[in-house]
Write a structure and sequence with these properties.
268 residues; alpha/beta; six-stranded parallel beta sheet; two-stranded parallel sheet; binds zinc ion
């Protein structure tokens, strides 16, 4: 595409070429809408050009009326899908890793943040969200998960390192920013190739494994070179018979109940 080599995608292309009984689903989750809006719109354009619905995790108290109206319009066109990303993306923990919905918050406080946040976001976008909750830093407590069920949320989306629950969840498995900072686009392609192979044989034994390949993005971190690389990745995924782009929320309806426990260690 655009004359820039996509040789960096060769490992992923090889993994996709190896084939699977059914196409592997992919989704693209962008976090922190409400911050750095000027970088959000170009990302949405790149995804729309590839025909991929961008899953946008929006911070209720940070979405301005202007941004909210634009997001609501794009959601109405199915260009994006809007999920709730916390309430205000603040850390309430005095020690340890940052968390908005962690052990420092009582169940009542968390319930208020979930419902008030939902109301604020739905008012801003002029309609319902998907009902998918994306906790800031990909972290929440077991109390949070119980509240999501009580309060009518449809699903949760964290990352693969998070503890497993019986609540429907669709997890991301790769972080664009972290991988490209550590090893450039080749590191990203290598991780995605591994993710494809882990899913190609059908449901794996690992309870933490979401069947889809979910890539986490942060638009605030994406410069022109990142967007060019993403366009190349989307071009491959959208046109390869071994892959299909699927909105996160539609995957939530098929997310199986799982059980077990694991540690949570992720970025945002
Ligand atoms: Zn975030």
């Amino acid at each position: 595409m655009t004359g820039v080599s996509s040789v960096w995608l060769d490992p992923l292309r090889t993994a996709l070429d190896e084939g699977s009984p059914v196409p592997v689903a992919w989704f693209f989750r962008d976090d922190d809408a409400g911050w750095a809006d000027d970088r959000l719109w170009p990302l949405i354009e790149v995804c729309a050009a590839a025909g991929a619905t961008l899953d946008v995790a929006a911070i209720p108290e940070e979405v301005t009326p202007t941004t909210g109206a634009a997001l609501g319009r794009l959601a109405g066109e199915a260009t994006i899908a809007i999920h709730q990303h916390g309430r205000s993306h603040v850390n309430h923990e005095a020690t340890g890793r940052a968390c908005e919905f962690g052990s420092a918050r009582s169940a009542d406080d968390q319930a208020a943040d979930l419902t008030v946040g939902r109301d604020i976001l739905e008012a801003a976008i002029g309609g319902p969200t998907t009902g998918v909750f994306v906790p800031p830093w990909n972290r929440c407590s077991e109390v949070t998960v119980g509240l999501l069920a009580e309060l009518g949320f449809a699903a949760l989306s964290r990352d693969e390192s998070a503890f497993v629950t019986s609540f429907p969840e669709v997890r991301v498995c790769a972080d664009w920013t972290r991988l490209t900072r550590e090893g450039g686009l080749p590191a990203l392609a290598g991780t995605l190739a591994g993710a494809v192979r882990r899913r190609a044989g059908g449901r794996a034994e690992d309870d933490r494994l979401t069947p889809a390949v979910g890539l986490m993005l942060h638009h605030a971190d994406l410069g022109a070179a990142d967007l060019s690389g993403l366009a190349q990745l989307l071009d491959l995924v959208a046109n390869h018979p071994g892959a299909e782009c699927v909105p996160l929320a539609s995957l939530a309806s098929t997310a199986g109940a799982t059980q077990g426990a694991a540690d949570d260690d992720s970025r945002t």
